[in-house]
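Q: Here's a chain of 462 amino acids. Please give me its 3D structure as tokens.
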Amino acid sequence: MSFRARLTLVAAAAVALAVILASAIVYVVVRHQMRSQVDDAVRAQAFQLATGPPLHLEPGANGKYYLDIHRGVVGGGGFVQLVGPRGATFVTFEELGSPPIPVSKEALAVAQGKKTDQFMSDASVSGRDFRVMTVPVQNTNGQSSALQVAQDLTGVNHTLSKIRKILVVIGLGGIALAAALGLIVSRAALAPVRRMTGATEKVAETGDLSERIETHGADELSRLGASFNAMLAALEDSTRKQRQLVADASHELRTPLTSLRTNIEVLAGERTLPPGERERLLHDVIEQLGEMTTLIAGLIELARAEEQPDEPEDVRLDLVAADAVERARRNQPGVEFETDLHESLVHGVPSTIERAVANLLDNAAKWSPPGGPVEVGVRGGTVTVRDHGPGIAQEDLPYVFDRFYRARSARGLPGSGLGLAIVRQVAEAHGGEVVAERAHGGGTQMTLRLNGRPPHAADDGS
């Protein structure tokens, strides 16, 4: 089934459901109003008879007793009967010979004085529906009885039947009209979709992610086209970053791999090495393996951060920073860490936030002079880390968070050039940013801003 046919079917089904619901509501309301009018009339007639002169029975010509009430009291279509304590029924003189209203258990309980509440009920006599009001009364002998006043519902049911037929005709007509209009509207509405399909098929065939769909206006289809263009742009950017990452990783791995291969070949050679040369080469191999391990670990960390496998949660940023500082103190005993941590709640992935803070501390410790202080502060969802090293050159500031970027002054120091790139990736994943700037008095200050909340914000909002 084509999308246009499904759209037409859905439109017709929606209209059908709406028509059915509206018809049902109209029918129920009309039925309730009409039956309420009958109930009010029956209730008034029963009250008039129950509060009037005491009811008494008169013997008829055939020896049967009848209820001595004038037939005109209940009007046309009305019916009155008296139920005795033993279930015997007595009707008016005009209704002698007519089948009585069936006596229910509730009506018999009223006639026997076991139940004193009046009630309304439905009854059927010889295929005719009645609305019956039962009230407790006493006859002239003081015996408990039940007076039942009924009104024929034939006229009401006939009117409701006509209303049902009219509603069915209106509903069928509305469904047919909706199907026709849905077919016309879907044909016009799906024209842009057909054009968009052609454009997407072209992208699929050529693989050219720079292709864009022409969009106009601000309706849903235009927004769909804009969203598709945004998706293509994101895919293009992601592909570009992947290719750049592969190229950068290949370039960064080429040098240590070449050096490692050369050293291993020398060690594996048959010529005799001078004293101490073997130990130096082994030391270089171990150092190069360490550099490659660090580089690969950074690449894995970047990939994991992009996947975001963990669910975000509320994180105490000050506690995360405190733990990171403790680890940094153990790993960098020659650096003094000074902290000013204030309670700060952010929403994010704890492991990636911990990694970003740890990378900032490692970077600051690497550039700090021996015994130099590193100042760490947390306030309002923001982490600041300042070192008192030589600082970052002005021309290097725009690039310090790029992957594999290493300033000239850093090329002789250990590292992969991925630590600060991971920090930026974590910041952007949490809707924040990281900024590097030259600090007053020397050194560098790194500022990591995340989606912060005031302390106890969650409690105050509950």
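Q: Can you summarize the key feature?
A: The chain is about 50% helix and 20% strand.
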